[in-house]
Amino acid sequence: MYLKLENINKHYGDYKASDNVSFEIEKGKLVALLGPSGSGKTTILRMIAGLETPDEGDIIIDGRKVNDLPPAERGVGFVFQNYALFRYMTVYENIAFGLEIKKQTKEEIKKRVTELMDLIGMTGLEKRYPNQLSGGQRQRVAFARALAPNPGLLLLDEPFAAIDAKVRKELRTWLRHMIHQIGITSIFVTHDQEEAVEVADEIIVTNKGRVEQTGRPREIYQNPKTPFVSEFVGESELITDYHKLKGFDKGDFKGAIIRPEFVEAFKQDNKIFKDMLDCSEEGEIVDIQFRGNSLQVLLDVNGIILTTYRSLERRPIRIGEKMRVIIYKMFAVDDDRAYLLENEMISSKGVKERHPDVYLYSGDGYFVG
Questions:
Q1: pTM confidence score
Q2: For 239-361, CATH number?
Q3: Is a pLDDT exceeding 60 seen at residue 90?
Q4: In a designed cystine with 93, which of 1, 89, 252, 296 is the match (CB 3.0 to 4.6 A)?
């Protein structure tokens, strides 16, 4: 493992920012620290960088314990949320800054800066100042400056937070490609789950100073292990009276998380779902919201409000219309764990086996009913 945190604790007075945090990261991986504000993710990043000191525990980088090393000796590059570029320096001078501190020759500096300008796709803009650049360009320069001294570990604190939505999406793709191209171990902090899922090789979910779950993006999304992860990741609604829904009358849990993709709403005469009518129940449409490529539909089913999405290619619907509704599965939660529950009526009738496409792809716009 290239990076290892062992039993890290950090207090600020009575506030516990890190609560026995432990995890490992392999060399060359791009990892997201994902969590809400105040979950301790930035504190973890700053302790790895040497900008904060843990009260207890060890930080090991490339086999070397670094607790007592200053930031400059840890082999770490840091990209701040607000870019932190020197406004009175050109792009070239900003990228060269760390190399000059290390007393490299002008020839070495020029060669390295030229390489990085090409890497970030900004060749020819060396003489511009930060106020002459777009937000996306400033962030690329910040990446290049952090990479200039050839660190073994790159840390990024919400690197896309100050950038508009369209450029943010472009930079996500660019960052992932760049990190894999140069093979540097990287950690970025984010509270945006879409960003974490899209960019990261692995995700570490934090909450109240603790690590809730680690894993690959798909694993985190499809198999949440705790109530917090099941609610925080994905579009989730906590239902306390889930027993009212067909196929989920067993178990004694505090509640259940039902995501929109777990819910299918169809018209009574839909032939694709004709042998699933017994598994369905009546729901009334209480709201419809246009979401660009789909409709967000809110349904009242036995007094429970559920959300699903409907393709624009399907037949029109209206508020107040009665629909047939199937809930395929849900995540039941207790105090400490989340459990996947599948609709028992669907399983007992063999619907899943007879219609795997319907079961797997419902809600994704595959149907016209």
A1: 0.87
A2: 2.40.50.100
A3: yes
A4: 89
